[in-house]
Amino acid sequence: MAETVERVEAAINHLLPHSDLAEGMLFEAMRYGCLGGGKRLRPFLVMESSRLFGVKRDCALRVAAAIEFVHCYSLIHDDLPAMDNSDLRRGRPTVHRKFEEATAILAGDALLTYAFEVLADHATHEDPNVRCHLVASLARSAGSHGMVGGQMLDLMAEHEEFAIGAITRLQRLKTGELIAFSATAGALLGRADPAHLNALKGYAYDLGLAFQITDDLLDIDGDPAETGKPVGQDEERGKATFVSMMGVERARAQAHMLAEQACRHLDIFDERADLLKRLARWVVERRA
Amino acid sequence: MAETVERVEAAINHLLPHSDLAEGMLFEAMRYGCLGGGKRLRPFLVMESSRLFGVKRDCALRVAAAIEFVHCYSLIHDDLPAMDNSDLRRGRPTVHRKFEEATAILAGDALLTYAFEVLADHATHEDPNVRCHLVASLARSAGSHGMVGGQMLDLMAEHEEFAIGAITRLQRLKTGELIAFSATAGALLGRADPAHLNALKGYAYDLGLAFQITDDLLDIDGDPAETGKPVGQDEERGKATFVSMMGVERARAQAHMLAEQACRHLDIFDERADLLKRLARWVVERRA
Question: Would you tell me which CATH number, out of the four given (3.30.70.1350, 3.40.50.1110, 1.10.600.10, 1.25.40.10), belongs to the domain B2-285?
Fold first, then answer.
């Protein structure tokens, strides 16, 4: 996994702009928001799902970077004063604390835009149909019927009572859809058949939920030195989470159950999917 | 022109989401930011440039709407407190004044994302190569080397002295690139040859600059009842504009000269480009 992450870092670093133009501060903010930390969960899913279908590594790396640009833009905007108002991310000042707030808004906008430029480029896949597919799928996963819709629900959850079903939907939109796109990107790049595509989709939705529940647990009993952010933020904001609704023990059991369920979806791939299975178990056991 | 604008309104209205889901407020903010006013300059350029190459109207309308989504997202983010901090746009409260600031940030993000979803969809053009071309070109025009880069420069222009060359570059990035993409979209959709594509590009860059100089003039001597925004905002912010650098008379002459120059690029199309020529003259004579 470390080797994959290193390759992804290099791809991100290579793709992001860097110059001494007058507007260079914008590029610096984009780089700051994308480099230096991050688990690179989504890129890892792209790389591993691509490996299952023999996709060229350089193509997969571009898609992995594009998805990470979208993920990082969402964090930059999420951290803004009008949103979560976070000062720290991965143990460092957030983009709007390191730069100006306006620069942070623009850096997020530019990263989101750049993701689509990277996907539509010939270097990402020789078949333009596949590229269009990638663009449309990423847009759906990240847009108002996906991640941004989930962020909207997340804001509302601070003021309104959400039932457990509504929380599940919120999390599926906010983090699940982009994780699902990441895990199925390899199938799109490799023009896989529906059975294999759906196996990855099933895996990703369970994984995404397990990931989110673990995040909620870490918000309660994580070590700030490891997570890089303060403890108890959700509770402070009065946000209903899986943990506040189910209790710590049941939430933990649910996360582990989901991780096992995620792995079973991958049986169709035999041992070739072992790393994806290990990832699912790591996701619920991680301390950061 | 009125008929085209009406068709574009209908296309935008049809494409934007609308629902009674919990996150429906997000959709409302997206609609509010896109509908009800706006000159629809960019969509008009898409429709007219498409007509030159016999592009199907329904395809052109989708591209016109997508570009307007990007334009409207940029206005929503530009108006935010951390950016221009504007309360009024087109005589109505700006999106963050009508909704919450967080909702405005998300509505902008969702509109930008949706633009790429619309372009990548099969309904936009039967040839996936053309769709990829549209996605990549829009991303370049709107991203850190285009519109967002220009917005970054615009923020810096409040604190730094910019020479006339730097102001020209700023405006080319901030508004010129998206206008150029709009005017060349028809050529991309119609798979035009380079000579016709370049004619439209030349037209668009001159038109964009003429448009911006006229905007700067209206900021000084426009009628707030017609422009829908207060007079003298640029000067108040200490922003260098074409008018502050050249003086009112020279700026007005320059705008008219650019409009004529824009028209000459279109001679290659004979009288089929008459509406685009009339548009260039309207752009420098408008009062709003």
Answer: 1.10.600.10
